[in-house]
Structure formats: C-alpha cells, structure tokens
Design brief:
With 142 residues, this protein is mostly helical. It contains 6 helices and no strands. The longest helix has 26 residues. The chain starts with a helix and ends with a helix. The model has no long low-confidence stretch (mean pLDDT 89).
C-alpha cells in the first residue's frame, strides 16, 4: 500500500514545480512485482494528472501572481508557453508530459481559460501514454 501512495505522491509532485521522479518510482514498483502493472499505470496517471490540474488552477485563478518573486515559473517561461499555446492551442497539451515545458504549459492552459473537460481529456491521454510506454519497455526488458 505504501508503494502505491508513494507512486501517487511522486507522480503528483512530478507534475508540479517540485522535482520528483515518478518514472523511477513506477519502474521500481514494476520490477518489484508486488502490484499489477495496470494498477500502477492508473495510480501514476491519476497522480500526475492531479498535479497538472493544480497547475491549471494556478493559471486559471492565480494568474495575477505571475510577477510575484516566489511564483514558480519565470515570466519568460510563461511567455514562451503562451506563444506556443497561441500557435498550437489545446493540441499543445499533448506535450504536457515533456519535462521542463510540460508544467508551465499546464499553467498557461489555465491562463488561456482552456475548458477543464478538454484539458483533462488531452492531459490524461498524454500522461497515460508516457507511463504506458515506460511500463511496456520495463516489462519487455525484464
């Protein structure tokens, strides 16, 4: 049970500004073999999407804090993500799993008032896809 909780927390934190390696936790739990791979994929995806929803909420409701010195993303990161979001729209959320750019992108989606239903749909597909490929490779190498 602690492994699943740890996976959820690592996945949640990895989607925020807190440095965390949910992939390492997922691979470790797959190798340990104590849990079904499907359950691990589900927990990792839910945790990572929940962290992205926190980012979306920050962007949606707390965008006025962008210039605050303790805001987690620099104005350059936000501006770069907004330019990309203007160019690609909601399709850019398929890159929400990508390290470094994915987290600011989910914040920008909130600032751009992306509907939550579409945000959840696209981000869930993207995040699950990343974890599924990682699990597939891990199981294949075992």
């Amino acid at each position: 049970m602690f492994g699943l909780i740890g996976l959820f927390l690592a996945a949640f934190l990895a989607a925020t500004i807190v440095p965390a390696q949910s992939e390492a936790v997922l691979v470790g739990l797959i190798i340990a073999g104590d849990h079904a791979v499907g359950a691990l994929l589900f927990i990792a995806t839910v945790g990572n999407v929940a962290g992205s929803v926190l980012n979306w909420t920050i962007g949606r409701y707390l965008g006025r804090l962008f210039n605050h010195p303790r805001f987690p993303f620099s104005s350059e990161q936000i501006e770069r993500a907004q330019r990309g979001y203007h160019k690609w729209g909601w399709v850019s959320l398929f890159a929400s799993w990508v390290p470094i750019i994915g987290d600011p992108l989910t914040v920008v989606a909130g600032t751009m008032k992306e509907p939550l239903w579409r945000f959840l749909t696209v981000v869930t597909i993207a995040k699950f896809g990343r974890y599924a490929v990682l699990a597939w490779v891990t199981v294949g190498l075992m």
